[in-house]
Design goal:
single chain, alpha+beta, Immunoglobulin-like, Glutaredoxin, 3 domains, 7-stranded antiparallel β-sheet, 5-stranded mixed β-sheet, 21 strands, about 45% helix, about 20% strand, disordered N terminus
Length: about 700
């Protein structure tokens, strides 16, 4: 993850430097020559001289998340054909490269690359180019080409040295200088050469800043999401307080401060310092996580099938730890060392008391913190915000009880009820683990954990939670005989009611033909149209034949999953366009679809009056060939990368959902809309209708 973030940062710096200074020196110089092997075979020889500190990469290997290999390309020319593959010589070493976090074969100083060509017409020049990429320990240059033209009939020769610097494809100060090519797979984009793609649409970029109409939209999604992130972290901290690792520490710690202080004021001061130390420790952890991984890599956590599958396994392990089958603890030496520092007293001693609490309570708080951190990973400061909320809730009782020690008498005594809290949290962790597996399943199109199975497992898990609270299920640390207190009866009734509520999610909406997703489960459940037993509605086969991406999206609404196809169809039928930047693993996208799009008026607008284009920015479906973004210099390997870059290039943001209403001239009608937690479906409908009405006026 760290290597990905570093690579992207390096590419971004290169992009900025090119726009600022035009062409930039490349650390590799080439001498390209042609040597005859026989009357019909010639060898292109490319000698590279590499500046100190830089590495050039092998032509014999490719890496999924590594550098671009060196290659020799002979362009299609009558009478010539390549024979075999590129061979290389030099001091190539295959070592672990921390920059790419992988085994990489590279060379320093000098290298030679050779390509044999079969020749029929000696007077016909061999034209082509050598492509390469170089990196040092801090950054990488973008993929670069050097062209050559060599005529076999002239015998051994060298390509004329070009005094100009090598052209870095896709990075020039003036984009109009480039020769942009049309590509049938991506007609909305422009290509410079074979791989570098630009998806910027001038009309869209201009009107995004100054929309044609005012529909009262203010993009406040980011601020609200951070508030929700803090609240989520705070709720996690409150839950952690009730666990056996933390709750008994409250009276012991507060009593220590009040009895060991000279007066009440000193006790309050020490208690407050203790609470602030807890907050400082946990916020620092959040900041370190962000600094280490980087914002881009943190966002990748929320959609990567590898990361989500790993989280699924970890959360199942945490769940069984909460059930009492084993304990997950940090090394005892850490706790011992921290405890010895705490005994020194003073501010340092109080700080290390707080640090000791964080270490000792890890077996209970670790799973809760882990859940909160992963859910907050879509924002670059999300981990710090969620840790601020978590630690504030955790520190609050220590400060309050230090100020008002008499309140300690009102606390319930420690006992078996805390183990029950821990077991219930284990069931919750087990349920949340399924969410991570669901994201991996959706983004990778495995077809394993569809709506019915996911919801069915949740019904079983919370029915089992109810049975546990009623005493029908026992775990290792439970008392032989369960005492049914009023509180336990209340929670058993709540979990039973929630189980019934979940079961109602199997009811079918007659209009959409999909399941009715329970509102509280919106964003957690897979999309209702991702199921086994309710086939999606039939699409118009004539449209499907012309536009392959035409299909059914959320709530069985007709949609396109390719921008160019959707725009072409909108022009054909003269309807406004509604772009939906979404994701298979996007929780807030599902919330909007389940609460707003399900409403008859909104559904009718999106399905009948407008052309819906849903672009999934986390789709892992591979493209026919890898591309490089002109805008950022990053590699585009799959459809998700393509649409994420499209969103960034035209709208300067990469958060989902993002809704854009435009006309067929690609002019943005109303300010793009993000998710708003407190928005009603009526407000959403008003935005859609306003955008539609104003778009129609521009299309007459």
């Amino acid at each position: 993850m760290k290597s990905i973030a570093r690579t992207l940062c390096g590419m971004l710096l290169v992009c900025i430097s090119h726009f600022t200074y035009g062409q930039v020196d490349n650390p590799v110089s080439w001498k390209i020559s042609l040597n005859p092997l026989s009357e019909t075979e010639y060898e292109i020889v490319c000698d590279a001289t590499i500046e100190d500190g830089w590495k050039l990469y092998s032509s014999n290997e490719t890496w999924d998340d590594g550098p671009v290999p060196t290659s020799i390309t002979v362009e299609s020319t009558d009478g010539h054909a390549i024979k075999g593959s590129v061979t290389e010589s030099g001091k190539f070493d295959k070592v672990f490269d921390p920059f790419f976090n992988s085994e990489i074969t590279s060379v320093k100083k000098k290298a030679q690359f050779r390509q044999v060509v079969s020749v029929k017409d000696l007077d016909n020049p061999i034209k082509g180019f050598v492509s390469w990429m170089v990196c040092n320990d801090e950054t990488c240059k973008p993929p670069t080409d050097k062209e050559f033209s060599l005529t076999p009939g002239q015998g051994a020769q060298s390509a004329k040295e070009d005094k100009k610097e090598p052209i870095s494809r896709g990075f020039t100060q003036d984009p109009e200088v480039l020769t942009w090519e049309y590509h049938p797979d991506h007609p909305h984009a422009r290509f410079d050469g074979d791989k570098t793609i630009s998806q910027g649409i001038p009309n869209m970029q201009k009107t995004y800043v100054e929309p044609l109409a005012d529909c009262g939209e203010e993009n406040l999604g980011g601020k609200k999401n951070l508030l929700l992130t803090f609240i989520g972290g705070f709720a996690g901290g409150l839950i952690a307080l009730l666990t056996p690792c933390v709750f008994p520490m409250i009276p012991l710690t507060v009593s220590f401060f009040t009895k060991g202080s000279k007066d009440r004021a000193s006790g309050i001061k020490n208690g407050l310092i203790y609470g602030l130390s807890i907050i400082g420790i946990y916020v620092a952890i959040g900041l370190i996580i962000t600094a280490f991984f980087g914002a881009t890599a943190l966002q990748a956590l929320s959609t990567s099938w590898i990361a989500n599958t790993l989280f699924f396994v970890l959360f199942v392990i945490f769940a069984f730890s909460f059930f009492g089958f084993y304990e997950i603890t940090l090394p005892s030496s850490w706790t011992t060392k921290s405890d010895s520092m705490a005994s020194k007293g003073g501010l340092i001693g109080i700080f290390f008391m707080a640090f000791t609490l964080a270490l000792v309570s890890f077996s209970c708080t670790g799973p809760i913190i882990g859940t909160a951190l992963v859910q907050s990973a879509t924002s670059k400061i999300g981990p710090a915000v969620v840790m601020l909320g978590f630690s504030t809730a955790l520190a609050l009782p220590f400060g309050l009880f230090a100020a008002f020690p008499g309140w300690l008498n009102s606390l319930p005594r420690s006992g078996g009820w805390m183990n029950s809290v821990k077991v219930v949290l284990g069931f919750v962790e087990l349920a949340l683990a399924l969410k991570f597996l669901s994201v991996a399943d959706l983004t990778s199109h495995w077809g394993l954990l569809k709506y019915e199975l996911f919801l069915g497992l949740w019904v079983i898990i919370f029915a089992a939670t109810t049975a546990y609270l009623l005493g029908f299920i026992k775990f290792p640390h439970d008392s032989p005989k369960v005492k049914m207190s009023p509180t336990r009866w209340i929670f058993a009734a709540l979990f039973a009611a929630f189980t019934v509520y979940l079961a109602l999610g199997f009811s079918v909406n007659k209009r959409t033909g999909n399941y009715n997703t329970p509102k509280l489960m919106s964003g957690l459940l897979p999309p209702a149209n991702y199921n086994w037993f309710l086939p999606p509605g039939k699409v118009n086969e004539t449209i499907k034949a012309q536009y392959p991406s035409y299909s059914k999206c959320a709530n069985n609404i007709n949609c396109f999953k390719d921008y160019s196809e959707g725009l072409a169809y909108a022009k054909e039928v003269n309807k406004p366009v509604f772009i939906d930047f979404t994701g298979h693993g996007c929780v807030n996208c599902r919330k909007v679809e389940d609460s707003h799009w399900i409403q008859p008026q909104v559904w009718q607008k999106l399905n009948d009056d407008m052309v819906l284009i849903s672009l999934y920015t986390d789709d892992r479906k591979k493209l026919k060939k890898r591309l490089v973004s002109k805008n950022t210099g990053t590699k585009i390997r799959n459809e998700g990368n393509l649409w994420a870059e499209f969103q960034i290039e035209n709208f300067d943001q990469n958060s989902q959902p993002l809704y854009v209403i435009m006309n067929t001239d690609e002019e943005v009608i109303a300010s793009p809309k993000s998710y708003e937690a407190d928005e009603s479906w009526e407000e959403y409908l008003a935005y859609v209708k306003c955008g539609y009405d104003n778009a129609r006026q521009t299309m007459r």
